[in-house]
Write a structure and sequence with these properties.
The chain is mainly alpha-helical. It is 77% helix and 0% strand.
C-alpha cells in the first residue's frame, strides 16, 4: 500500500487543469516579477541611460529605452496578473529578442538571461494564462450571468 502512494506521488498519471493553472500562475509571478526589476532599474536610471541606450530600430536611444521600459515594466505587470495576457507578452517577447539578438549579438555566453526570458515567454505565450488570471475571470464572468 505504501509503495502505491510513492508511485503515485513520483509518477502522476496526468496533470489536471488546477495543477497546470497553478504552475502557470507561479511562472507568471516568478518571471514577471524578475523582468519587472530590469524595467524598474531602467526607469530609475532613465536620465543616465537615455543618451547611450542601444538603438536597434533607428528611432533614437531615448525612444528605444522607453520601449524597453514599457515591455519590461508595464507589460510585466499585466503578465503577472494575466491581464490582456497575450497582447502584453508581445512587447516582452520583442524586447527579449532585441536584447538577445542585437544587444548581445545572439551569443549565449553574453545573453543567456535574455535567451532564457525569450524562450520562457514564447512558451508561456503558447500555453496561455491559465484559470488563475484576470483574462480567465473576464471571459468567464459573462458566462455566469446568463
Amino acid at each position: 500500500m505504501m509503495n502505491m502512494k510513492y508511485n503515485t506521488l513520483l509518477f502522476p498519471r496526468k496533470a489536471n487543469q488546477t495543477n497546470f493553472s497553478l504552475f502557470l500562475l507561479s511562472m507568471r509571478l516568478l518571471f514577471g516579477s524578475l523582468l519587472m526589476t530590469h524595467g524598474y532599474a531602467k526607469l530609475m536610471g532613465f536620465a543616465a541611460m537615455s543618451a547611450s541606450f542601444p538603438d536597434p530600430f533607428g528611432i533614437g536611444s531615448r525612444y528605444s529605452l522607453m520601449l524597453a521600459i514599457f515591455g519590461e515594466l508595464f507589460c510585466s505587470v499585466a503578465f503577472v496578473f494575466g491581464f490582456l495576457y497575450r497582447l502584453s507578452m508581445i512587447p516582452m517577447i520583442v524586447t527579449m529578442a532585441v536584447a538577445f539578438f542585437f544587444a548581445h549579438g545572439g551569443s549565449i555566453t553574453g545573453g543567456e538571461l535574455a535567451f532564457v526570458y525569450l524562450v520562457v515567454f514564447i512558451l508561456m505565450y503558447m500555453a496561455g494564462p491559465g484559470k488563475y488570471s484576470v483574462d480567465h475571470w473576464m471571459t468567464n464572468s459573462g458566462k455566469r450571468r446568463r
